[in-house]
C-alpha cells in the first residue's frame, strides 16, 4: 500500500510534464494584478443576537451583554429600572464585513458574526440592527438579519458532540451600504496595477504588453514600471478610464515566479515549484526504532515467612533499523526531482528532513519556505 506522500508524489509525477512544458504560464492581467483604487475596506461593529434557544450569554458572567440590552430597550422607549433579566436567549457579538470597491448606497453585502461572551451557539438567532464603521470612524453600512450557522453542538448528561464552530456564522446579504467611499474611480488620473505575486520579470512583461497595445490604440506608450509590484498606466486624453481598464485587464502576459519549496511541518504538506532544481547529491535515509516494553511480575513470599508481596520489574528493549537506501538526486526538471524523491520511499517527515538537509548542503537551488 502506498504511503500518503507516495500518492502525492505520484500525482506530481503525472502533472510534472505539464508543469515543465508550461514553466511560464500565460494569464490575463486581471488574474495576476489588482487595481490599487479597487481594494476592499474592512468594517466592524458591535451588536446583539436575539432569539436563541437558551444558548446565549449568561448575563452575570457577561455584564456587557446586559448593559447593551438595557441600552437597546431604553432607545426603544422601554424602561428597565429595577428589573433583572435572567434570559439566555441573547448574545453579544462582533460583526465584521469587507466593503467591496466602488460599492454604491443601497447595495448589499455579507457580514460575519462572532460571539463575544459565553454563548454556546448562535444557531437560530437574529442579528439586531448593527452599525458598521470603517477605520475613520464613519458608518458605512447597517447589518441586520437571521444568522446561518454551519456548526452545531449537542450534549447530554454523560456525553457531548460538537461539530464545526457554533458560535460564529454569517448573514448573507445582511448589510445595506449607506455611504459611498470618498474616492471615485472616475476622479483618478491614472491606473495603478499591483501584482498579487511581486516579480520584476512579470512586471516588465506586463508593462511591455500594455505599451504594445497602447501603441496601436493610442499611438504611444502609457505604462511605466515602478517596482516589482506596481505598474502605473497614464490615462490618454481621448480615452475613457473605465473602458481603458476593461481593455487592459484582458491582455495576456507570460508570468514568472521564483523557485520555491513550501513545507508545512504541521500537516506534512510539501509543494514543489516547477522551476526547483537540485544539484547532484547523494542522500541516505534510515530510521532507528527503539521499543521499550515493561512486563512487571508479582513475587509472592513463601508460606508462613512473614514476607510481603512485591513487584519485580522486567524490561525488554528491542532496537530495529529499517533498510536504508542511498539515492542520488539530481533535479534538472520537476519530473526528475519527483522521481528521485519517490525512489527513496520515505514518509513526509523524512522528505521534509531531506529537503532541509539538501538546503543546508547548498544543493537546493530554490527558496525553502517553512510554515
Automatic annotation (TrEMBL):
InterPro entries: Flag_FlgI (IPR001782). Residues 1-23 form the signal peptide. The keyword DNA repair does not apply. Keywords: Bacterial flagellum, Cell projection, Cilium, Flagellum, Periplasm, Signal. It is found in: Bacterial flagellum basal body. The basal body constitutes a major portion of the flagellar organelle and consists of four rings (L,P,S, and M) mounted on a central rod. Belongs to the FlgI family. Assembles around the rod to form the L-ring and probably protects the motor/basal body from shearing forces during rotation. This is Flagellar P-ring protein. It comes from Rhizobium alvei.
Amino acid at each position: 500500500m502506498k504511503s500518503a506522500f507516495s500518492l502525492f508524489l505520484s500525482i506530481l509525477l503525472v502533472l510534472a510534464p505539464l508543469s515543465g512544458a508550461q514553466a511560464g504560464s500565460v494569464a490575463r492581467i486581471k488574474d495576476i494584478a489588482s487595481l490599487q483604487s479597487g481594494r476592499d475596506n474592512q468594517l466592524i461593529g458591535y451588536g446583539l443576537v436575539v432569539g436563541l434557544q437558551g444558548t446565549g450569554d449568561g448575563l452575570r458572567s457577561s455584564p456587557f451583554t446586559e448593559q447593551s440590552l438595557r441600552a437597546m430597550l431604553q432607545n426603544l422607549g422601554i424602561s428597565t429600572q429595577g428589573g433583572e433579566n435572567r434570559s439566555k436567549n441573547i448574545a453579544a457579538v462582533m460583526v465584521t464585513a469587507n466593503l467591496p470597491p466602488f460599492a454604491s448606497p443601497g447595495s448589499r453585502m455579507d457580514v460575519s458574526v462572532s460571539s463575544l461572551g459565553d454563548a454556546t451557539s448562535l444557531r437560530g438567532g437574529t442579528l439586531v440592527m448593527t452599525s458598521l464603521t470603517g477605520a475613520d470612524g464613519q458608518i458605512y453600512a447597517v447589518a441586520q438579519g437571521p444568522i446561518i450557522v454551519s456548526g452545531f453542538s449537542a450534549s447530554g448528561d454523560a456525553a457531548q458532540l460538537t461539530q464545526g464552530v457554533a458560535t460564529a456564522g454569517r448573514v448573507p446579504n445582511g448589510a445595506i451600504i449607506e455611504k459611498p467611499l470618498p474616492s471615485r474611480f472616475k476622479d483618478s488620473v491614472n491606473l495603478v496595477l499591483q501584482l498579487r505575486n511581486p516579480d520584476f520579470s512579470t512586471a516588465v512583461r506586463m508593462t511591455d504588453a500594455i505599451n504594445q497595445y497602447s501603441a496601436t490604440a493610442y499611438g504611444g506608450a502609457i505604462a511605466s514600471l515602478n517596482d516589482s509590484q506596481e505598474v502605473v498606466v497614464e490615462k490618454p486624453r481621448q480615452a475613457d478610464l473605465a473602458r481603458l481598464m476593461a481593455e487592459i485587464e484582458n491582455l495576456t502576459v507570460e508570468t514568472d515566479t521564483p523557485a520555491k519549496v513550501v513545507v508545512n511541518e504541521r500537516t506534512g504538506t510539501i509543494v514543489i515549484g516547477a522551476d526547483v532544481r537540485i544539484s547532484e547529491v547523494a542522500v541516505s535515509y534510515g530510521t532507528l526504532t527503539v521499543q521499550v516494553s515493561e512486563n512487571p511480575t508479582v513475587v509472592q513470599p513463601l508460606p508462613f515467612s512473614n514476607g510481603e508481596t512485591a513487584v519485580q520489574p522486567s524490561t525488554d528493549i528491542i532496537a530495529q533499523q529499517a533498510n536504508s537506501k542511498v539515492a542520488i538526486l539530481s533535479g534538472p526538471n520537476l519530473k526528475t526531482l519527483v522521481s528521485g524523491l519517490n525512489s527513496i520511499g520515505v514518509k513526509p517527515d523524512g522528505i521534509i528532513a531531506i529537503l532541509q538537509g539538501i538546503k543546508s548542503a547548498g544543493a537546493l537551488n530554490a527558496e525553502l519556505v517553512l510554515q
